[in-house]
Write a structure and sequence with these properties.
The chain is mostly helical. It has 48 helices and two strands. A two-stranded antiparallel ribbon has the order 1-2. β1 and β2 (about 320) form a beta hairpin.
């Protein structure tokens, strides 16, 4: 199927060529370029064909198809020889420039004999000499050939580097990279990095740079102790080359960097993101570089004992790390051998060997905000190892230990049940014939109960309730009525938590929990033979039901019933010496006081509980209790003490499985404490750890919500590349890609990503992301307000790109959604910015459209006023008046601009000492004075305005606001 229309004349052809030139490199662009060459051949005049052939060669060159580039160039050279007059100065320059492209293409193909490569360089030299062109570009290609073959490069380097650059020399960035690589090959990392600095610092760039230089500089930076710089460049450099067949070698070097810095898990993630490169790279030279980087990574993963992990490789089958490594090794070794055979050296095999023999340069370098190890990427998100108790080897002893631990609430129960689940599921399982163990059906009930508890912790209430009921039935079958009653009691709370469509959510939930409490009381009364630990569990569930009701309603009348139930539990547990339930009751009492708003009493209770836990245990309750005291101290404003408690809680939690000590929450609370103490980077680390722990334990919604907070905070801290890398990683998670995660949560992450891309000055990618999100959110009939916000942001980015027609369409979508769910400030800000951008770009030509946009902004302000809406930031009316002034000033309508700015000043009023609009007022004065004094050439009234404003602001202490006014006044006096 054709990918481009068939132009009927040369004007249409040129438009089609321009349109295709805006496409990303890849098959669509290449196929379209091929079709346009076919079309150009039908026209009588040859120049359109020259343009089409040049576009096709460019598509081949940057689309990693080196075999086809020389063929196209041969046609161009023939046209030049036969009809030189067709080539104007620009086309002639392009033709001679592309001699280098052909040299590089031939170099990348091992089937091209070395003699043919040298013959082509001779052709290039002769053509340049005949045309009176400097030979520095030729010597550059001769040096590259020597480096590729593995010859002594010093003479060739001097012949090239010592010559004066010409118009046909490679760009400064590319030549800097070649010089740096020369020093790198000589083993001089420091000199190579000094040479690279202008490119790495962004002072020199081109289509391939700095991405190419960055990929080579990563390891020298590590070897010279600049790990932070390497980390920063890895994030920016990888994003510039990912999934690009023409930069597959660069991708391979980033994979190698991950392997040598303890980031093997990230390396596997990036490999999956670049799976397309296995089938899309047509350049053997690029392919051997890419595959070697892949092999370095896979070799490292296998060496660490994870050869059975899944890996993304060639299409058509699934791969393990070990299997893919063997395949890649064979292919890469064969390609290197073919190059060596062509060149008559062992250079390519030697270079491969050197890369594969490198030892890790760092044990661990935190590259992204997701600090993950290989255990975190195991199939089915298997949890990483945690402090593991010693479980009995005897099956009967293991079952007894599991039940005893469960009765005590001991964390060891988790590991025991996990071991038993594996044993029972294994073929040929033989249940012990032991009265102390009981029948197999009872063990199956135990395992269902354990699963129900774990599912309930993830808020999967319907599943948890069903599992508890199933466990109860099996306990009945096993003749364990106490366990059956307890299982049914445990099913009551998750059933009450199930969300239903009700008019009043909080009131309905309270009613459900009241009914649940009553059901638990009845169950306890109807089951008189419960063991003490079972009855204590039921009492705890009764207290929890009322505690959840208080949490839902915050009704003072619900406080006393909770405390009464807690006292029942505490008295019972004390009478039967059930240590875990004693501390549980006291923790619940402290939490109830906290819920009621009595933080001092809650703190006193927690202090007493901590003293008891330190003396009598259980030790595994200490981390949760310290976590509660830390939160209470945060609520009382003592962030330093809270931080100390939470840090100690985290230290103690390391001795126990993280799910039993709620380690994720401890990290989240420490993040809050860190922010209160002005330590945002520390907060970012804790938030990230909290999210990853939730992810590890299957609480994916909580994890992604927390990661959203991580993204937002990292963006606020200016860590733009960190934010982008994090979101790129999250959005490639299997359940996200499969559409299994909540679509609104994913949309929020994508919105953060678009904002981060914008902050990172990748306007094209940011606009594409937002435009796609706006299209999707248009269907959110239940949430038009979010669509209004997204469409408004999209409109601004489209306007920044100069696409004012599309920007207006997006703004209209935002206005339509705003009519259903008002977003006054967002819409007003969007419309004002659209008007500013259009007149800033188009001047008077864009004024009419800009004023139409401001008219819409005026209607939004009128609606806000009628709704008695108070803006949180700037007044919508004064901001609109100021924008009228600015827009008219851009369009050259200075009198109108001045009148609008005077109106803005009148709306704002003169600021007082504590007014937060002093900066806005001063800016209005400044712009009005610029318009009046500079554009209307009336300096006297402008200076009067400025002096009055300075005299007003200075005694009020608004010194920062007066500085631009003082500077402008001095300028007007100097020019007067």
């Amino acid at each position: 199927m054709p990918t481009a229309p068939h132009p009927q004349n040369t004007d249409e052809l040129y438009r089609a060529l321009q349109e295709n030139d805006r496409r990303p490199y890849g098959r669509t662009r290449t196929v379209t370029a091929e079709e346009l060459v076919d079309t150009a051949e039908q026209f009588a005049e040859p120049r359109p064909l020259v343009h089409a052939l040049l576009a096709l060669q460019k598509a081949y060159n940057y689309g990693s198809e080196p075999r086809k580039s020389p063929v196209v160039f041969a046609r161009l050279l023939t046209l030049f020889d036969e009809q030189p007059d067709v080539f104007d100065e620009r086309l002639r320059h392009t033709l001679f420039w592309r001699f280098k492209w052909v040299a590089n293409a031939l170099l990348a193909l091992p089937e091209i004999p070395l003699a043919s490569l040298r013959q082509w360089l001779t052709e290039m030299r002769d053509r340049y000499a005949k045309a009176g062109l400097g030979l520095q570009p030729y010597y550059g290609q001769a040096y590259r050939l020597a480096a590729h073959v593995g010859e002594d490069t010093a003479p060739a380097f001097e012949l090239w580097a010592g010559r004066t650059r010409t118009k046909l020399s490679d760009c400064e960035a590319c030549e800097i990279c070649e010089r740096a690589l020369y020093h790198l090959a000589a083993g001089d990392d420091e000199r190579a990095l000094r040479a690279w600095e202008p490119v790495l610092a962004g002072k020199e760039s081109c289509q391939e740079e700095p991405a190419r230089s960055v990929s080579y500089a990563l390891l020298p930076l590590l070897r010279t102790g600049r790990s932070d710089r390497a980390r920063e460049l890895h994030l920016t450099g990888y994003r510039a080359c990912r999934r690009n067949p023409a930069m597959s070698g660069e991708v391979g070097r980033h994979l190698e960097f991950c392997a040598l810095t303890g980031n093997e898990a990230r390396g596997l993630e990036l490999l999956a993101e670049n799976r397309n490169l296995f089938g899309e790279v047509d350049s053997p030279l690029d392919l051997v570089s890419f595959l070697t980087g892949v092999e370095v990574l896979l070799q490292r993963v296998e060496l660490l004992g994870h050869g059975d992990l899944p890996a993304a490789g060639y299409a058509g089958r699934t791969w393990t790390v070990a299997g893919l490594r063997a395949e890649v090794r064979g292919r890469a070794a064969d390609l290197a051998a073919r190059f060596d055979a062509r060149n008559g050296t062992t250079a390519h095999t030697d270079r491969r060997t050197a890369r594969l023999d490198r030892a890790p340069l760092l044990d661990a370098l935190e590259l992204t905000l997701r600090a993950r190890g290989l255990d975190d990427v195991a199939p089915a998100a298997a949890p990483a190892p945690e402090p593991a108790p010693v479980v009995p080897e005897s099956l009967a002893e293991l079952i007894v230990r599991a039940r005893e631990s469960e009765a005590q609430g001991h964390p060891d129960a988790t590991a025991c049940w996990a071991r038993l689940r594996t044993l029972v599921a294994a073929p040929g399982y033989a249940h012990p014939d032991d009265p102390a163990v009981g029948p197999l059906v009872r063990l199956r009930a135990d395992l269902l109960a354990d699963e129900a508890a774990r599912v309930g912790e993830k808020d999967e209430y319907d599943k948890a309730a069903a599992l508890w009921e199933a466990a109860a039935s099996l306990y009945d079958e096993a003749g364990a009525p106490g366990d059956a009653a307890l299982a049914r009691a445990c099913a009551v709370l998750p059933a009450a938590e199930l969300p239903e469509e009700r008019a009043d959510g909080a009131e309905a939930k309270a009613a459900a929990l009241t009914a649940a409490h009553a059901a638990l009381v009845r169950l306890q009364e109807e089951t008189p033979d419960l063991a003490p630990y079972q009855e204590a569990r039921v009492l705890r569930l009764r207290a929890s039901a009322l505690g959840l009701r208080l949490q839902a309603t915050r009704d003072e009348e619900h406080i006393a019933p909770v405390l009464a139930e807690v006292e029942l539990l505490l008295a019972f547990a004390t009478r039967h010496d059930i240590t875990g339930q004693i501390s549980g009751a006291r923790l619940l009492r402290a939490s109830t006081h906290a819920l009621s708003g009595d933080l001092p009493t809650a703190l006193t209770e927690t202090d007493a509980l901590l003293d008891r836990l330190k003396a009598d245990g259980p030790a595994w309750h200490l981390p949760r209790t310290l976590g509660l005291r830390g939160r209470l101290r945060l609520g009382l404003g003592d962030a330093q003490a809270a931080h100390a408690d939470l840090t100690e809680g985290l230290r103690l939690a390391a001795d126990w499985p993280s799910d039993c000590t709620d380690t994720a929450r401890l990290h989240g609370d420490l993040a809050q404490a860190g922010m209160r103490l002005g330590r945002p980077d520390e907060a970012l680390r804790h938030l990230s750890r909290s999210a990853e722990l939730d992810l590890r334990h299957g609480s994916r919604t909580d994890a992604f919500c927390t990661y959203g907070n991580v993204a937002q905070l990292s963006l606020e801290l200016g860590r733009v590349e960190d934010c982008i890398a994090l979101l790129d990683s999250l959005l490639t998670e299997p359940d996200v890609a499969a559409g299994e995660l909540d679509d609104r949560l994913v949309a929020q992450l994508r919105l953060y990503r678009a904002r981060a891309l914008h902050a990172g000055e990748d306007l094209k990618a940011a606009t594409a992301e937002l435009a796609a999100l706006a299209a999707e959110s248009a269907g959110w009939d239940d949430d038009p307000g979010s669509h209004a916000m997204i469409a408004a942001e999209t409109a601004v980015l489209l306007a920044e790109s100069g696409e004012f027609g599309r920007a207006r369409e997006a703004a209209d979508q935002a206005l339509a959604a705003h009519a259903r769910a008002p977003r006054y400030e967002q819409l007003s800000s969007c419309l004002r910015e659209l008007a500013r951008l259009q007149t800033q770009r188009q001047g008077a030509e864009g004024l009419a459209d800009a004023l139409a946009v401001l008219a819409d902004a005026g209607r939004v302000a009128d609606e806000a006023r009628a709704a008695e809406y108070e803006a949180r930031d700037r007044s919508l009316d004064s901001a609109l008046a100021y924008e009228h002034g600015r827009v008219n000033a851009y369009a050259g309508e200075y009198e109108t601009a001045l009148a609008a700015l005077d109106r803005a000043l009148a709306l704002l009023g003169e600021p007082g000492p504590d007014d937060d609009h002093a900066g806005e007022w001063a800016e209005c004065v400044r712009l009005a004075s610029v318009v009046e004094g500079l554009y209307l050439e009336r300096p006297v009234p402008a200076l009067t305005r400025l002096d009055a404003a300075i005299s007003h602001l200075t005694p009020l202490g608004h010194t920062e606001e007066t500085e631009p006014l003082t500077s402008l006044a001095a300028q007007l006096r100097d020019e007067g």
